[in-house]
Amino acid sequence: MKQKVASRSIKILVAKLGLDGHDRGALVLCRAFRDAGMEVIYSGLFATPDRIAQIVEDEDVDVVAMSLLNGAHGTLFPRVVKTLKKKGIKDVLIVGGGVIPDIDHDELIKAGVDHVFGPGTTLQTIIDHITTGVSKLRKI
Asked: pTM here?
């Protein structure tokens, strides 16, 4: 079933940040989002926060879905949020996932990440969260 909110498909950027060369999970997410009817952009490996912000600006994405498995989430996720804010981009849902300890979730949310998904989260749970979040953003 296509995931449309307010008459157009959700456009999502799946971002692999920093020196994390493990993208199997990110590619699974790309396919799941595509199969759910979303327009998917994949950053490729080793993206910087500046590169992510530029893609968001150029492509007018609704969602940034960041994936990290290397432990740099505490630095890179907040940098993406700050870089987007510097560019004046406020109407984007920012989510993260990967192997991120539960103890770090609250700090990432305080930094501006909407939600953090851990290992074992179902694809449908992620898709539902994104669809609901974009609906709320588009009503603003």
From this structure: 0.91
